[in-house]
Amino acid sequence: MKFTDSPVVELPVGTAVLSLQQDNGSMHVGTSVWPCSLVLVKFIDRWAPLTTPENPYSHLLDFKSKRAVELGTGCGVAGMGLFLLGLTDIVLTDISPVMPALKRNLKVNKRVLGKNLKHSILYWNNIDQIRALNPPFDFVIATDVVYIEESVGLLVSAMEALVSENGVVLLGYQVRSPEAHKRFWELCNEVFDIDMVPHDHLHPEYAYEEADVYIMKKKKKEL
Ligand SMILES: C[S@@+](CC[C@H](N)C(=O)[O-])C[C@H]1O[C@@H](n2cnc3c(N)ncnc32)[C@H](O)[C@@H]1O
After folding, report:
1. Using a 6 Å cutoff on CB, does residue 74 contact ligand 1?
2. Whose CA is nearest to atom 27 of ligand 1?
3. What secondary structure letter does DSSP report for 156?
4. pLDDT, tens digit, for every residue of 128-137?
5. 12-21, pLDDT tens digit by residue?
6. Which atom of ligand 1 is nearest the CA belonging to 36?
7. Whose CA is nearest to atom 25 of ligand 1?
8. How far, in Å, CA of 175 to CA of 180, rounded?
9. Residue of 32, 38, 95, 184 to mutate, ligand 1, most atoms within 8 A of C-beta
């Protein structure tokens, strides 16, 4: 399972199938479906049936009454997938030039989703836009968003501002730039306790060597 340039990507989620429309010819990276989004959704899909005995993620995946926000949603894959898996109070965010691609995908999948999901323009450096979302959130979702060294600090600050003290950042990750990678993990290590999901816990048909899923929680402040 790798990056595909097919204009439509179909993703089975639970009992539904998302139809994801992408435009790889656009100048905005957010109009493509990036593979870590599929890896994250299918990881959750694998463990979401909380009836599975000895499910190590049963506590994490108790989505009832939880609020979530997705950063850099692009075509909306992770947000739509997690909505279908029970994270129903979610708002999908990105920069304004990506909104047409997001809105198109929300419309195409409206029948499967049963509604038009909440979405909002959010630039990671815009404190007013962050405040307008009314944080804190129980979950911050992000996939394939670490690729520009200059924006890494803004991204980590936005994550920190948006996630609650006991909340979780769910991150689909692949190294896209060595410099951004180094800076991102330096900053995350200051703010979050970080767990990487073992590869054998990912969905076997939606996993590949370079892609990881991370579960991050705010470090507890020393009293
Ligand atoms: C590589 S794409 C990944 C898109 C989607 N998450 C996926 O996995 O398919 C990175 C996304 O981050 C968004 N992004 C980059 N810099 C941003 C910023 N400063 N504020 C908000 N979004 C940003 C881009 O617009 C783009 O949609």
Report:
1. yes
2. 30
3. H
4. 999 999 999 9
5. 999 999 999 8
6. 8
7. 30
8. 8
9. 95
* Ligand 1 in reach of 144 Cβ (< 6 A): yes
Strands 163-173 and 137-143, sheet pairing: parallel
Place of tokens 């994250």: 40
Sort strands 67-71 and 137-143 into parallel, antiparallel or unpaired: parallel
Does residue 24 or residue 185 have the better pLDDT? Answer: 185
Domains of the chain: 8-218 (3.40.50.150)
Mean pLDDT of the 1-10 span: 73
Question: CA 10, 13, 18, 22: dihedral to nearest 10 degrees?
Answer: -60
- What are the CA-CA distances from residue 46 to residues 57, 131, 188, 199 (Å)? 10, 33, 27, 13
pTM for the model: 0.96
pLDDT band at 2 (very low <50, low <70, confident <90, very high): low
